[in-house]
Structure formats: C-alpha cells, structure tokens
C-alpha cells in the first residue's frame, strides 16, 4: 500500500452528489474553497501558485469507496446500459477511487482561522471531499486541442433551457443564482431518465430546488430552504 494523506477539503455548495456537474469547468459560475488541513497550512507550500490561472485537484471519491472492483462499468453518458472498461471512463467505482479536476484559481485568501485558502471556479466536488494533492495546470504540456474524446465526444455539449420563475429565483442567494442556473442547464438527471412527470430535488447553497424536465426545457417548481443542522 502507498500511504496517502488528506491535505485539504473542498468547501462547495453541494451537500449531496446529485446535481454536481459531470466534469470540472462545465459551470464556470460555481465557486468553492480549498481549505487545508491544519498540518498543511504552511504558506510556503503555496509560494508561486498565484502565478497559475488553473490548477489540478487530485481527490478521493469518498462516497464511492467499496470492497473490490469491476473491470467494466456502465457510464451514465451511454444511458447506463452499455458497459465500458473502467479505465476508459471516469467512473468513481475504480480500484483506487481517485478523481482529477481542473479548476480555475481565482485567488488565495488569508483566513484568520483557516490559514491560506484557495478560491476556485468550476469545481465538480461535493462539500467536504478530501483532496490528496494539488498541482499547477501547465498549458504547454496539459493542453491538447487535437485530442479525441472517445465515446464522450458527442455527449458533453447538450444543455437545457431553464424556466426559473422570478419569484422562486429570489429565494436563492443572489450570488448563487448564476451558478445554480448553470447547474440546472447541464441537466442534473441521470441520462437514462426521461419521465416528464417526475419531480427531481436538488440541494444547493442552502436550498432545495424541485424541478421537472420535458423535452429540452427544465422548469423549476419550488425552492425551499434546507433544514439547518
């Protein structure tokens, strides 16, 4: 076994897995904070990081840890029915449940209690997800515009029109409205569910949003505050 340390945890607006964008960077309006564990709150470890526009987060699928593994999985992008090799997917159900996300670094803030905190955009992580490492994104080595996307090539660009009644949108914190609308536009449902009568619930930024989808339009039906812990 290779020892791994949790160096930080993400603080995001997603208390549960449902609704989290399927890849990082899809909803640029999302904001999150990377809060380091006490033993890693050394500002020297961040020296020079402010000069990079993007960073890689290497993290653990903490809600997907299980005994054993399967060589094939059913990607939601393919309707949940077609099996692909686990190493040809980004499924959380892997021999080692490790995720990789490229996020935009908005800044490094000094918190009086938490030390230096990274503020990032476009993160696809649930709140409190453990982070194992952080590396700078290096454009000349990491960017490959000619790359082929395999079975994902024709499945990542679809968005929905979002019908969000103004009186319901007002129940969402003002600084979270753009991010929430972007999350809804990316269709949070499992790709194999298409029942227009089904009502879905998404917890985000302290509210529960209930919605339906018919055709290419998502309609918000209610917004209610989440119970306080």
Question: Secondary structure elements and their pairing?
Answer:
Elements: E1 8-11, E2 31-36, E3 54-60, E4 72-73, E5 84-85, E6 98-111, E7 115-121, E8 130-136, H1 139-142, E9 161-163, H2 166-169, H3 177-185, E10 200-204, E11 207-214, E12 217-225
Parallel strand pairs: 9-12
Antiparallel strand pairs: 1-2, 1-8, 2-7, 3-6, 3-8, 4-5, 6-7, 10-11, 11-12
Structural write-up:
This protein is mainly β and 229 residues long. The chain has 2 domains: 8-62 and 97-142, Elongation Factor Tu (Ef-tu), domain 3 (Beta Barrel); 161-225, YaeB-like fold (2-Layer Sandwich), CATH 3.30.2310.20. The chain is built from 3 helices and 12 strands, in the order ββββββββαβααβββ. The chain has helices spanning 139-142, 166-169, 177-185, and strands at 8-11, 31-36, 54-60, 72-73, 84-85, 98-111, 115-121, 130-136, 161-163, 200-204, 207-214, 217-225. Strands 1-2-7-6-3-8 form a 6-stranded antiparallel barrel. The model has no long low-confidence stretch (mean pLDDT 93).
What features would you highlight for this structure?
229 residues, mainly beta, Elongation Factor Tu (Ef-tu), domain 3, 2 domains, 6-stranded antiparallel barrel, 3 helices, 12 strands
Quaternary structure classification: single chain
Could you say how many structural domains there are in total? 2
Distance between the termini: 37 Å
Low-confidence stretches: none
Helix amount, in percent? under 10%
Mean pLDDT: 93
CATH H level, superfamily name of the largest domain: YaeB-like
The share of residues in extended strands comes to 25-35%
Structural class label = mainly beta
């Amino acid at each position: 076994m290779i020892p791994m340390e949790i160096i930080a945890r993400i603080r995001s607006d997603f208390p549960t897995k449902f609704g989290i964008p399927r890849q990082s960077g899809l909803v640029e309006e999302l904001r999150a904070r990377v809060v380091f564990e006490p033993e890693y709150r050394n500002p020297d470890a961040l020296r020079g990081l402010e000069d990079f526009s993007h960073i890689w987060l290497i993290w653990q699928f903490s809600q997907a840890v299980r005994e054993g593994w399967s060589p094939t999985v059913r990607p939601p992008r393919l309707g949940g029915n077609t099996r692909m090799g686990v190493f040809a997917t980004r499924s959380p159900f892997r021999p080692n449940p490790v995720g990789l996300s490229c996020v935009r670094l908005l800044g490094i803030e000094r918190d009086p209690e938490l030390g230096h905190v990274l503020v990032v955009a476009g993160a696809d992580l649930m709140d409190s997800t453990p982070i194992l490492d952080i590396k700078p994104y290096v454009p000349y080595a990491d960017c490959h515009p000619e790359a082929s996307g395999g079975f994902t090539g024709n499945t990542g660009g679809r968005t929905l029109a979002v019908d969000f009644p103004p009186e319901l949108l007002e129940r969402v914190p003002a600084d979270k409205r753009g991010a929430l609308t972007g999350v809804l536009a990316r269709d949070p449902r499992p790709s194999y569910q298409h029942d227009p009568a089904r009502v879905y619930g998404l917890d985000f930024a302290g509210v529960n949003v209930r919605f339906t989808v018919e055709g290419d339009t998502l309609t918000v039906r209610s917004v209610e505050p989440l119970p306080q812990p």
